[in-house]
Write a structure and sequence with these properties.
Layout lengths: L16 E7 L3 H8 L9 E7 L4 H14 L2 E4 L5 H15 L4 E5 L3 E2 L2 H13 L3 E8 L5 E3 L2 E4 L5 E2 L11 E4 L4 E5 H6 L13 H11 L3 E12 L15 H18 L2 H9 L1 H9 L6 H4 L2 H29 L33 E9 L3 H19 L4 E9 L7 H5 L4 E5 L5 H11 L5 E5 L3 E3 L3 H12 L3 E10 L5 H5 L21 E5 H7 L13 H11 L4 E13 L6 H21 L4 H32 L2 H21 L2 E3 L9 E3 L6
Parallel strand pairs: 1-2, 1-4, 2-3, 6-12, 13-14, 13-16, 14-15, 18-20
Antiparallel strand pairs: 4-11, 5-12, 6-7, 8-9, 8-10, 16-19, 17-20, 18-19, 21-22
Helix pairs in contact: 7-9, 7-11, 8-11, 9-11, 11-20, 12-15, 19-20, 19-21, 20-21
């Protein structure tokens, strides 16, 4: 990696650099390093992003930013290094910056070095640039690094631990300069799925794939007291988070970026490489506490779960070929061409867009009574400007019409009964009843919408042109919760940046562009009406048909978790059900008998892997007294059993009404 050729580029001093520093409980380090640099240069704008830790720390960093004149971005929770840095990039762009330097709180860069880095980035916007980094004793700790493509080892270019096979270079995020143009190519910057560690390896890899270059300016020096953000530790020991996330994210990187053969190599070499990661803190640490080993094992198991799922998906996509052109509504696994679906964007003179807000319900009149007034408020908000018209539709799956009186009490609500049992039939009835609408928003009868729930979905739809927009679902416990359940995060759902493309979604908070759904020929599968997974199959089918589905993090619905579900038996049965439904979905997406047989065999093998991994984690939890490991291990065990059951033809129908929830015979073919 050599310095870029600046050539005749003009540097008139009008393009500022955003210096982005992420804080998490590190205000003393900010005062020691960043605040100590009284002058950073005329073209440097400091943006500090605070990942929330404590109320006291938020107050400290707020006061320090005001004192120093820094621009402060306060996040409501700890979103990890990558997400916080991206928030800093976005804020710096609002301030007019054209290039950005992300810097650790325990690092410092002289003003003249920042200026040279700024000019170099402006001269070559497709270069990702890092200075040489030394510690406080003047010893070089970074001058470029390599990634072994056959094993996932990271090391300095001339280190004896460097991989012997093919390698790829990468730059550390401790001090990294990237332009606005490159950030655009990287879809906003760091991949936020890493949370901590390896996000810089991933960014470097994607920058090269996007046509960029990696440059180390050995003539420019920054100082980094490595480990300052991890606190004081004996000897060379690292934090438990260091071990966990380095072991986990090594395999996350492989799952997201590598082809099948390389991914398999990384999986096979995980025990040795994870042990090497652990030994970066020395052997002596293991004499004092088992926690570093536990963290490394936990991270490795988490990473292996991610990698094995990716490996199975790659294997499936390679082995299935398109045999004929799909008819409308057919799902051909492995198809490489997608149909052109209508755009969500409207011309400026188009009339208002009609929206149907649908509430499937069954035997919950009290919950429905509480929900409907909130939906009226949501509808009033989005229709006030004249851009949208809206209706509320209640689809009752109870032939006894238990929701009729509640719906009749609200004149603005349209009420219909769908007598066919099962949530799939109810959702399909909503699709049919919304024939006059462009958009259909689903919310369940045991949920309630947060502020801006519907408006946020509509904004994301209008800006993305997506066929589906999915939002967050947050748990609200209606009674005391077993600490074991809390430790296992059984009711915690995913979240990601708004606009992120996804390939699966839950229907409890989902907006559909019906023009695109109809063009794709996608409906909810009645065969899964009494089992779980009808929304998984629907959303995956929509993506298979060529539609785009995106995430909206600003839209949130709260799921009211009844006391009856706050038991270990219920959450483990749900884990069984989810494993079962995941395999049933794969079977429904596959037409050929041979392919379905292969899926059954794979599901049994994958289930056995989950069973073994979950059992190991559960035993580890018993040995260490960790409820998190015990709960997480038990969940993996039961999910694995569900996968094995589905592979062998055992179906769990969670919503069966005749008392028989177990059925043998497998899922019917299409």
């Amino acid at each position: 990696m050599s310095p870029p050729n600046r050539g005749e580029a003009e540097h008139d001093g009008t393009h500022d650099m955003g210096l982005v520093v992420v804080n998490y409980g590190s205000s003393p380090l900010l005062r020691q390093y960043l605040a100590a640099a009284s002058e950073l240069g005329a073209h440097v704008r400091v943006v500090v992003v605070d990942n929330r830790s404590t109320v006291e720390e938020r107050g400290e960093v707020t006061a320090l930013a005001a004192e120093q004149g820094w621009d402060l971005v306060t996040l409501p929770d700890n979103r990890g290094f990558g997400a916080a840095t991206n928030a800093g990039f976005a804020r710096a762009r609002e301030l007019g910056c054209a290039t950005f330097c992300c810097l650790n709180p325990d690092a410092s860069v002289p003003p003249d070095v920042l200026e040279e880095l700024r000019l170099a980035s402006l001269a070559d916007p497709l270069a990702v640039i890092a200075p040489r980094i030394v510690n406080s004793a003047g010893v070089t700790v970074f001058e470029g690094s390599t990634l072994g493509l056959d094993d996932g080892r990271t090391a300095a270019p001339h280190s004896p631990t460097r991989s012997r096979g093919p390698v790829e270079e990468w730059l550390t995020g401790a001090c990294l300069v990237v332009s606005a143009e490159m950030i655009d190519r990287l879809d906003g910057g760091y991949d936020e799925g890493y949370f901590l560690y390896w996000e810089d390896v991933d960014l470097s890899h994607r920058a090269l794939a996007a046509g960029g270059s990696l440059v180390v300016r050995s003539d420019l020096v920054a100082v980094h007291d490595e480990g300052g953000t991890q606190g004081t530790r004996e000897g060379g020991a690292k934090s438990d988070l260091y071990y966990r996330y380095n072991c986990r994210n090594r395999l996350l990187f492989a799952a997201r970026n590598l082809p099948r053969r390389q991914l398999l190599k990384w999986i096979v070499r995980t025990p040795r490489v994870s042990w090497e990661i652990l030994l970066r803190g020395g052997r002596r640490q293991l004499l004092h506490s088992p926690k570093p080993l536990v963290a490394a094992v936990r991270g490795s198991l988490e990473g292996l779960g991610i990698a094995l799922v990716a490996l199975v998906r790659q294997t499936a996509s390679r082995s299935v070929r398109v045999q004929h052109a799909p008819a409308r509504g057919d799902l051909i696994q492995g198809a490489t061409e997608r149909a052109a679906l209508p755009s969500a964007r409207r011309s400026p003179d188009a009339g208002p867009v009609r929206v149907t807000v649908a509430v499937p319900t069954f035997g919950r009149p009290n919950e429905l009574r509480d929900l409907l007034p909130q939906l009226l408020d949501q509808v009033a908000e989005v229709t006030a400007g004249g851009q949208y018209t809206a209706e509320i539709l209640v689809v009752d799956n109870d032939p006894a019409r238990s929701a009729a009186a509640v719906a009749a009490a609200v004149s603005e609500v349209r009420y219909v009964v769908e007598a066919t049992p099962g949530i799939a039939a109810v959702r399909n009835r909503a699709l049919d009843e919304a024939a006059a609408s462009r958009l259909l928003a689903f919310i369940d009868d045991d949920e309630w919408p947060c502020i801006d729930w519907l408006a946020a979905l509509l904004r994301t739809w209008a800006g993305s042109g997506a066929a589906a927009v999915s939002g967050r679902i947050l748990p609200d416990y209606t009674g005391p919760v077993d600490p074991w359940i809390l430790a296992g995060d059984f009711f915690v759902r995913r979240r990601m940046p708004t606009g992120t493309e996804i390939d699966v979604a839950a229907a409890g908070n989902l907006l559909l562009d019906l023009a695109q759904v109809r063009a794709a020929g996608t409906r909810f599968d009645a065969a899964l009406g009494l089992a779980a997974g009808e929304d998984t199959l629907f959303s995956r089918s929509l993506v298979h048909a060529g539609a785009r589905m995106v995430w909206c993090d600003e839209s949130a619905a709260v799921d009211l978790v009844p006391v009856g579900r706050l038991t270990r038996r219920w959450v483990l049965t749900r884990a069984w059900s989810h494993g079962n439904a995941a395999v049933l979905t794969e079977l429904r997406l596959t037409a050929a008998a041979a392919a379905r047989l292969r899926i059954r065999i794979q599901s049994v093998l994958r289930g056995l892997l989950r069973l073994g991994g979950g059992g190991a984690r559960w035993v580890l939890g018993l040995a260490t007294g960790s409820e998190g490991h015990q709960a997480g291990g038990a969940r993996s065990i039961f999910r694995g059993i569900g996968m094995i059951g589905a592979g062998l033809g055992v179906v769990y129908e969670e919503y069966a009404r005749d008392g028989r929830r177990w059925r043998i015979g497998g899922i019917r073919t299409r």
